[in-house]
Design a protein that fits this description.
single chain; alpha+beta; Trna Endonuclease, Chain: A, domain 1; six-stranded mixed beta sheet; disordered N terminus
């Protein structure tokens, strides 16, 4: 929310060591008196337990700017990934449409009543009933595979679809070590990776 002078305040989670290392950069303001003092002067100042002090630090502003930048970059990456999948499927003479059950202009979402079942960046259905799911991540690591597999299970249950009639593609802007190879070989997912200009699509290996 906006602070007293118009700056945006935000929460940021950092390690204890990082906090200790940067604590001296904090500036605290008593909104009642308008007095501002640095972290080094904290023991010298009487702290009013009934007052909520305004704390500012350059690190928090940097984190906010980085988060906003990543949101814009991620949105653009999702669009590129959707376009790459559509082009890839068409190049293999697979003509797809979005399923009738999907609703949401930005990311396809299945709904049962008021409860979300799953959310994907893209869903396409071929003429023979095969469904293609796209998951896009700014950073793809091994820890995210169980979550994606669980989301796929919920989607298949909702669509009453056999797993053999579904293919998942993972688009990663960045990948952790061996995550791409494990996605292909262990989880049988297709993957999208950047070649510096656009995205290369690799199909999952045969079951």
């Amino acid at each position: 929310m906006p602070g007293a002078d118009g700056d945006i305040e935000t929460e940021s989670y950092v390690s204890a060591k990082a906090f200790r290392d940067t604590f001296h950069g904090f500036r605290f303001t008593n909104p009642k008196t308008g007095i501002t003092f640095g972290a080094a002067d904290l023991p010298k100042n009487h702290v009013d337990p009934t007052t909520i002090y305004i704390a500012k630090h350059p690190f928090l502003k940097a984190q906010l700017k980085e988060s906003s930048y990543n949101q814009v970059v991620d949105k653009a990456f999702e669009g590129e990934a959707c376009a790459a999948i559509e082009h890839h499927l068409q190049s293999h003479s697979i003509w797809c449409r979005a399923p009738h059950d999907s609703n949401q202009p930005d990311s396809w979402r299945f709904l049962t009543g008021a409860k979300d079942v799953a959310e994907w960046e893209g869903i396409w259905e071929s003429s023979n009933g095969h469904v293609y799911f796209l998951e896009a991540k700014h950073f793809m690591s091994h820890a995210k595979y169980p979550q994606i597999r669980n989301k796929l299970r919920r989607s298949l249950d909702f669509l009453h679809l056999d797993p053999s009639k579904a293919t998942v593609y993972i688009a990663g802007n960045h990948w952790s070590y061996m995550a791409m190879e494990d996605g292909l070989n262990l989880y049988k997912f297709g993957v999208l990776t950047s070649n510096g200009k656009d995205l290369d699509v690799r199909d999952p290996p045969p079951a």
